[in-house]
């Protein structure tokens, strides 16, 4: 499709996902540790969160500038992140997973104050013996859109530099790393006698160390990083260990309209390296949609699990169990409602957070649908209401990973009046809905494998 149509389509799907990518000015010498595992036990449980887009409350005053950002935030929930994160942390402390892993876009737009506050929240976990590992996303470092919101104005606030990121999250991976890539923020961790984890920085950095005025979306595994990855995989192979990979950008196109800027620029080369060393699973984020996809490459299976954004409905996270050759994954939903009632929180939006989060996301999809329908020349408000409701419902299915349906179910959806109105009035919306209505690759919310 044409450049203008593609830009329009990507803007509709993700809205403000484009964000700051930055300059590279490496942090200094890294000293690698002996590859002693973090734990000796065979059975390991870890949780995965992606794209929380956390914003420090101190950067907002709920004025008109902040309200405008919320309206253009692609359905992200920004008002009650402190409460939802505390609910999640309390549940983790109760259930005691061995690790929590965050696969990028930790902050809204790379605000240093947001990263510092998120690190404070995560310290509650490390203080209880739960290891935390983070990697940056394209929104996190040297983002020229880092802002605080005062009344009707946006004011620049300190952005996260490369050095800041490693310092702020020192306890969240970098201090436990067994090897560092000297040309990126990538690192590896020896987890137990069976598994190594690779945490990869897939962001593209410019040649200076200043925040970008225009954020970028795309990613790649740079040449030096690729060589470092190969070295880590070879060492794991020699030690008869399995390797799992975690990064922000995707190796597969999980939607035919989400490719450029979302899939690694050099994905084919990187996938070849992974299958050469029989890496079974890659975890990523970036597109905000929950999705699992497996392909055969050189007669070997390679699975990618994309975690839905923690900032949108249903605020999900992955729970993974490793037991030797056995791997199991399931999607869980953060239960803020129960936490709020147990802690006597009276704010209605927090006590009914599940419904509030879902309705907010639906309304965001409806708003974008109205804009497209009006642009197509529609004037019948009742018809537009029906079509917009259908778009909101389909958005929830897609981004929640609930779109793995039979052909019969899809046929019924396409018979609904909302779909028929869209098909008759908006080529753009029909193409969008057709791209998200059915996932035929793999069920997206659970997975079991034996490696």
TrEMBL record:
Gene3D superfamilies, sorted: 1.10.246.180, 3.60.21.10
Keyword line: Hydrolase, Iron, Metal-binding
Family to which the UniProt record says this protein belongs: Belongs to the cyclic nucleotide phosphodiesterase class-III family.
Protein's name according to its UniProt entry: Calcineurin-like phosphoesterase domain-containing protein
Domain of life from the UniProt record: Bacteria
GO molecular function: hydrolase activity; metal ion binding
Cyclic nucleotide phosphodiesterase C-terminal domain segment(s): 335-442
Organism in which the protein naturally occurs: Enterococcus caccae ATCC BAA-1240
Residue stretches making up the Calcineurin-like phosphoesterase domain: 46-289
Database matches in Pfam families: CNP_C_terminal, Metallophos
């Amino acid at each position: 499709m044409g450049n203008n149509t593609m830009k329009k389509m990507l803007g509709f799907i993700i809205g403000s996902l484009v964000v700051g990518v930055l300059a590279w000015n490496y942090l200094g010498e890294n000293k690698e540790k002996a590859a002693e595992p973090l734990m000796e036990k065979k059975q390991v449980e870890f949780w995965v969160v992606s794209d929380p887009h956390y914003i420090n409350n101190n950067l907002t005053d709920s004025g008109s500038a902040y309200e405008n950002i919320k309206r253009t935030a692609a359905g992200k929930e920004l008002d009650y992140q402190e409460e939802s994160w505390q609910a999640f942390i309390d549940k983790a402390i109760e259930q005691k997973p061995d690790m929590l892993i965050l696969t990028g876009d930790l902050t809204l737009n790379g605000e240093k104050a947001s990263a510092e506050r998120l690190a404070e929240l995560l310290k509650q976990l490390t203080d209880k013996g739960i290891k935390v590992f983070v990697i940056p996303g394209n929104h996190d470092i040297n983002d020229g859109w880092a802002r605080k919101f005062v009344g009707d104005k946006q004011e620049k606030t300190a952005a996260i530099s490369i050095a800041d990121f490693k310092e702020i999250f020192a306890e969240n991976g970098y201090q436990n790393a067994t090897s560092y890539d000297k040309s990126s923020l990538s690192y590896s961790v020896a987890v137990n006698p069976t598994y190594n984890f690779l945490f990869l920085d897939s962001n593209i950095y410019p040649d200076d160390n200043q925040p970008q005025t225009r954020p970028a979306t795309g990613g790649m595994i740079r040449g030096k990083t690729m060589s470092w990855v190969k070295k880590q995989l070879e060492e794991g192979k020699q030690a008869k260990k399995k390797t799992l990979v975690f990064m922000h950008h995707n190796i597969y196109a999980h939607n035919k309209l989400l490719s450029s800027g979302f899939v690694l620029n050099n994905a084919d080369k990187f996938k070849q390296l992974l299958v050469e060393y029989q890496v079974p699973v890659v975890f990523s984020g970036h597109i905000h949609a929950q999705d699992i996809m497996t392909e055969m490459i050189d007669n070997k299976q390679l699975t990618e699990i994309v975690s839905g954004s923690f900032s949108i409905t249903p605020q999900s996270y992955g729970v993974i169990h490793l037991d030797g050759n056995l791997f199991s994954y399931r999607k869980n939903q953060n239960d803020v409602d129960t936490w709020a009632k147990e802690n006597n929180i009276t704010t209605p939006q927090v006590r009914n957070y599940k419904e509030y989060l879902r309705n907010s996301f639906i309304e965001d999809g409806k708003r974008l649908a109205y804009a497209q329908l009006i642009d197509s020349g529609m004037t019948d408000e009742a018809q537009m209401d029906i079509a917009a409701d259908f778009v909101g419902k389909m958005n929830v299915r897609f981004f929640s990973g609930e779109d793995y349906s039979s052909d019969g179910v899809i046929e019924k959806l396409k018979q609904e009046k909302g779909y028929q109105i869209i098909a008759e009035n908006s080529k753009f919306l029909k193409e969008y809905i057709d791209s998200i209505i059915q996932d035929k690759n793999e069920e997206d919310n659970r997975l079991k494998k034996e490696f």
